[in-house]
Every structure is written in C-alpha cells, then in structure tokens.
Specification:
Length: 463
Amino acid sequence: MTVDIVTPQVGQYEPDTPAWWLRRLEQELANRLPEMQAFRDLVDDVHPKPESQETARKFRRIAGLSTTNLTGLAVEATAERMSIEGVRVGDEPDADKDVWDLLQRCDFDEGSQDAITSALVYSRSFLSVEPPSGDRPARLHYEDPRQVVLASWPDGSRRAALKVFTDEWTGTTFGTLYTPGYVVKMERAGIPDSGQQTWIIRDMGREAAVFRNPLGEVPFFELQNKLTGSIRSEVAPLVIPQLRLNQVIFNTDSVAEWGAFRQKWATNIEVPRDAEGKPIAPFEANVTKLFVSEGDATFGDFNVSDMKPYIELAQDVAAHIARLSRVPITYFLSNVANLSADALELLVSGLVLKCQRRVKGYEPGIEGAVRLMLRSMGDPRAQAANIEVKWADMNTRSPTQTADAAVKLTQGDNPVITPQTAQEKYLGMSQTERDRDEAWRAERQAASNLTAVLEAAQTNPLP
C-alpha cells in the first residue's frame, strides 16, 4: 500500500498526528546533521585545509600534511575511561548476573562503548529497546544520533521518535516513526535530491506497516553529554584551537620546507632575460652545483629561519587544547619530563573528574532502557526502586597502590568497606571476574575441608 501521509489534508497537521510528528522530527534531525558531521570530520581527521596567500601547488601539498589531530585524541582519551561493567538492580551489592547476561547476548558491552563515544562527539546518542519475539528475549541496540531524533516532555518522558536511514545497497531511504500508541514504517518516494520526494507507507507484504506499539512507550532513550550545563559536544570548544593548531603546523612546515635552505644572493653579475624581458635566474641553487662567474661577482647567502618560535607556538596551542579538554598534556607532548608520581596523578585527576561528571548524563538513558527491556519480558525486576549502572574504575593506579589500599580498607574488626567494594573500586574487577574468583575460593575451601577430614580419619582410625 502506498499512502501519502505528508500531503496536507484536513486536520492532518494537528498535534500528535503522524504527519505532524514526522514533519517536526525530520526538520529537527536535518537541523542537527551539519554540526554533527562537522564534529565527526574533526575527530576522523578530515580537517579544512589551512589557508595561504600562496596558491602554488607546493603549498597545497604542505597544507595536506599539516593537520595534527588532537581533537580525536582528546575524545578517545575521554571515552577509554568510561566503560560499563554491570548493572545493579535494587539494593543488591553486586551487579545482577541475569541482566548482564541479557546485555551480553546483544553485545551491549560493545554497543555501550559506541554510544558513549558518539555522545562525546555529537553531544548525544541513543539506545533502543527491541521487544522480545518468540524465544528470543528483548534486546538493547546502539542508535546513531545522525539517524535518530527524540522528542521529550520537560520531565524527560518520551513523546515521539523518528529513525531515518538509507540502505547502502539500494539507496532507498527508510523511516520509522514511534509514539507510545503506534509505529509507522515508511520509505521515501520520488527522485533523490529533486526536492520533490515524499514519505509513503512502506509496503511490508503480509506484515503491517502501521501497527500498535507493543511496548506502550517510545523505545528510544537519549544519552546526553552535558558540558557547562547544556547538552553539548565535547568537540565544540576544541574546533577553533584545532584549526589554529593546523594553521601553525602549516606555517611551521612551510618555513621548514623553504626557509631552512639558505637562500643565495649575488651581485655584479649579468642577468639573462627572456623574450619578454623578464629576468631569468642564472644559477640553480643545489648542493651539487657550483656557482661560477667571471669578473667582480660577489656571492652570499641569507641566514636560515629560526624554527623555535614556531614550535613553541604549536606547543602553546596544544597546551590550550589540553586545558579545554582536561586531557593531561602528556597525551599531546612528548617533551614533558621530570614529573613526580603525585604530579602525574594530579594531571590525570582532572580527566577522571570530567568523566565522572559526564556519565551522570548517560545513566538515566541506560537505566531507563534496561528497565523497559525487563518490563517488556514481564520480569519483576523492572519494578525495582533502583537500577544503577556500574562503571569501571576511571582512575589509573599502580598495582601496588591498589592492592595495598584494598587490603588496608578491608582488614580489622571494623573494616571500612566490604571486600566486594574493594574489588570493584580499587582492583577494578568486573562482576564476571569476581564471580570466577569466588567460585575458585569456594572450590579451594571445599578441597581443604576434604583434606582435613581425610587426615583426621588417618590419625584417629575408627575402631
């Protein structure tokens, strides 16, 4: 069935109708795309070429070699410290093994990393919940924010969502509109880039393209990267410094290419000219060439350009990017030396605190998606008062420091923390590792008890 749902009809653009939501959400997604793609390009090292008054090919070649991508490094250094290792349900001290198993089945450990990195780059990313089907349980999926837009009430409740993607094989663009009451599957009809395309109901064969939402709520959840109090990309404050750095490197490379070679000069020589009367250089400057002239000719050369100011300026710009991103300067510069362990820890602490702050904007979306996944399967854990994401330790400590702290805090008659907390916070052990070690300790204890029983029997045989 091919039914046009966006051509204006009587009452069609009333709020909460499919056509109304489609038009609003599609426009919002189109407004976000240019900025998101610009940020993605900076991270992926697709930078605008530095400008020069000289348009010769030699400068264009240098411009292509002058990008130094610290933006991508800043994003990666941040993302690598934010890793989900479990989900705690209710008041249990450990992560829920069944829930984590469900998440592992849908590769959520990898998908969560994609979602976190995308939130850092684009300012937001999305998770979606796929309802259970037959014997297959519900699943969580990472959604590219360049394909999804979500509308919410001020209290965070979700009103509608639109996902738009293009089939890379056929070139057909598909869209799916979600509201709490219904789901509408569509595709674009018309000539691409003609300005005359429209959305039509997708022909799904025996399957319905418009149907009641089986979850009863919009199955998309937003992970928000909150920077300076607003939803903002981690790349946004680095755009201008990154372009400045590229320009400085371009200038430095240009000087190294053309200013490092001593330029020659000569006086009292006869300068040949071409047919138009323009002077022609009488000598070719080269390390294998010798300048020869008759008469009173005088030769000399200019000093080489001093590269130090250019290099120091590039280092200053790199340090500025480090301050804005809270990434330690040691990530960007190799000439940082003679730093004590305390100084290094202080450098890293800013990045750790930033990561701990960022995940606060990710947790509501992740926890909401897990709750809806459990509810869709009728799992009573969906009613738990608390569902909490467990993050891997974001600090960098030496093995000696972590082991010493873990032991001291769990010893004595009144230990400060439980062994489980020490393993989680100080040793950085995942729930899987803790379960494996617990099983190993229990096995050793059982073997020890059995050995004790056998030794006792040999010492005191029965009459």
